Each structure stands twice: as structure tokens, then as C-alpha cells.
Amino acid sequence: MTEPLPWPATPPAHGSVVLREFADTDGQLALELGEDPYVPLIGSLPAHPTGREAEEWVRRQQTRHAEGRGFPFVITADETVVGTIGLWLRNLSEGAGIVGYSVSPRHRRRGFATDALKAMTGFARTVPGVERIELYIEPWNRGSLRAAEKAGYRREGLLPAHQEIGGTARDMLLYVKP
């Protein structure tokens, strides 16, 4: 395993949000996100997690950086935990960082995703090797599409059957911030 890139000395922030490392106390976020019908389909969080499963998910997020996978952050607004966002580096050899994000259902439609994307974009620009930032969004996900566009990302194209979600190959829209 290669040495992970350094964690940011100053937490990324924009507008109403600050991005911070996962803490042991973030299990409630996992419980909230696990109740969403979509979020468990796109990652390692089980649907309707137990308290123990939520704690295990938080621990997995805490190890991702040391494993060299990327930078998982918790999105906070006025110190309230509202979601998660990550910069993933599996395509770093191609100059690309991939951003994924989820906002807890009870905190949606308040601009947190847009502010988190702007904060993450600023941070991603400091990561050696990241020349392009990519988002993969399902065409039906209007909230995520709005957040991406408000954060200055542009649609580059439709990728048919690009990603498996919930056991089905799904079309994804590719949004980029060159």
C-alpha cells in the first residue's frame, strides 16, 4: 500500500458547511442515511442499519483515507451533521477524482449539497494529481443534478449502463469540473 495523501490541515468549508473527518459519534448519520431508499444501494451502508451496523459503517469510513482510497468527510452545518461527501481516488492515475455525496433526508433542499460540493471542489484542487473532478448521477436524481449545476459542474454526457446500483446496471450522467 502506498502512503496516503495528507489530510487537509484546514477543514474544507464553503457557505453554510464545514467538512470534517468522521468521528465515532457519527452513527446517527448512518442511521438516518440508512432509512433512505436509495443511499444503501450505492455504498456499503446497509438499509435500515442496526446501531452496531451504523458504528461499523462509521469505522469503515474512518479507515478509507489510511487505505489510500480517498477522503471521506462528514458534512456539517452550524455543527449539525447533515450528510457525507467523499473524494475518491481510484482513477487518480488518469488525473480524475470522483466525488460522491449524500445528505440526510431531513436536511435536504437547504443548499447543503451545493455548499459541500463547492467546499470539496476547492479541496480537490489541492490534491496532487487531481486535474478533473467527476460526478456520476442517475438521470432521475433532480436534487443531485441541481446541486451539481449550482456548484459549477457541467454535464459531459450520458454513460449507458455505467454503474451497478442495487444489482442493476444503471445509466449515469457524467458531470465534470475540469
TrEMBL record:
One of its GO terms (molecular function) is acyltransferase activity. Pfam families: Acetyltransf_3. InterPro entries: Acyl_CoA_acyltransferase, GNAT_dom, N-acetyltransferase. Keywords: Acyltransferase, Transferase. Its EC number is 2.3.-.-. Belongs to the acetyltransferase family. RimJ subfamily. This is GNAT family N-acetyltransferase. It comes from Amycolatopsis speibonae.
